[in-house]
Inverse folding.
């Protein structure tokens, strides 16, 4: 992965979480000229164990803080000459957004506004916002519709509404102030370093431990599953070649229902369906997401990891690294 030559000091907000930490590891292992500062409040989804792995890189610095804290963000920007910012920081669990929506608005909307403003004042050359396919809402399961970047934003949950709001704020800073902004909207990621609360690690760990596997509703909800490394490569490419003011969908076309994903995990772990427990559906639960990524593919990106291969290596990661996830269990 290579950035513009001028992009030497990269601020990665939310880099102690799942995708951000994979992205940092990817950047530092591929580009000797880049130095990364990770800023994270160490909230839900974060892992200090992952940070200790990233600390092996001499070009990595961690600063603890909240993106919605204007004074702390100002101190951060005054301390480093950032060339670009990639924002992963967000409250990311849909279930928690239903019980505690205001926390999501604070981090995911106010936090992004604080970062955009700081980038403008400090002359940061590019702001990249990591967004989600959930901003488009859903389609019926039987639909063949693919969301394009021009699809209407119709978010269903407080989480996806906060992410859609952040996207609109980013685009307003591009149009009004000329800030160089890009956005990627990705499907469901899976891979190493994802917190136990999310579907795939939850199902791998619970099936390994012989615990129940709770599945919402009928389990037929369809998601566009992508290996985290493919997502990180897409973000790197958009940083390097994406046009300012543009949005890029990141989808793998691996459309699978939750039940299909769980069946594959059970077979990889060597367990049977008897662990599956159907639980009452999540309010407003989206039925199907599917993305058209033609625009990103025209920049030269294509997913490299087939779902079955990526899932097998993800299962191996969790089975081989119990001390990474043990303390996350309730
Ligand atoms: P995650 O929950 O694993 O990590 C989020 C990180 O952000 C955590 O380390 C958390 O401490 C930090 N954070 C949250 N609020 C903060 C704040 N106010 N200040 C500083 N740090 C804060 O989430 P993830 O799965 O790695 O997702 C990263 C980004 O990618 C999010 O913006 C999410 O909306 C987006 N996204 C995720 C997926 C997915 O499948 N996981 C798909 C598409 C887009």
């Amino acid at each position: 992965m290579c950035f513009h030559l001028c992009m030497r000091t990269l601020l990665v907000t939310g880099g102690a979480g799942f995708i951000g930490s994979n992205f940092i590891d990817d950047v530092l292992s591929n580009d000797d000229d880049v130095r990364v500062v990770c800023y994270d409040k160490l909230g839900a989804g974060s892992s200090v164990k992952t940070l200790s792995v990233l600390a092996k890189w001499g070009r990595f610095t961690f600063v603890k803080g909240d993106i919605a804290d204007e004074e702390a963000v100002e101190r951060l920007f005054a301390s480093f000459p950032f060339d670009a910012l990639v924002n992963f920081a967000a409250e990311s669990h849909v279930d928690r957004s239903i019980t505690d929506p205001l926390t999501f608005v604070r981090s995911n909307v106010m936090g992004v506004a604080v970062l955009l403003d700081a980038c403008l004042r400090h002359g940061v050359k590019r702001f990249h916002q990591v967004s989600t396919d959930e901003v488009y809402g859903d389609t019926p399961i039987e639909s063949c519709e693919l969301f394009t970047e021009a699809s209407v934003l119709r978010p269903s949950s407080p989480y996806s509404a906060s992410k859609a709001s952040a996207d609109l704020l980013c685009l307003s800073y591009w149009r009004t102030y000329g800030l160089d902004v890009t956005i990627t909207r990705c499907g469901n990621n899976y891979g190493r370093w994802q917190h136990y609360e999310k579907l795939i690690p939850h199902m791998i760990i619970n099936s390994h431990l012989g615990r129940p596997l709770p599945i919402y509703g009928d389990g037929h909800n369809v998601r566009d599953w992508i290996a985290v490394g493919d997502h990180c490569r897409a973000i790197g490419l958009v940083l390097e070649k994406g046009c300012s003011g543009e949005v890029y969908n990141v989808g793998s076309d691996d459309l699978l229902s939750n039940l299909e994903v769980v069946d594959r995990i059970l077979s990889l772990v060597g367990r049977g369906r008897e662990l599956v427990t159907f639980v009452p559906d999540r309010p407003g639960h989206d039925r199907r997401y599917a993305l058209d990524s033609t625009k990103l593919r025209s920049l030269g990106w294509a997913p490299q990891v087939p779902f079955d291969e990526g899932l097998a290596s993800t299962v191996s990661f969790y089975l081989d690294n119990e001390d990474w996830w043990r303390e996350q269990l309730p």
Summary: The mean pLDDT is 96.
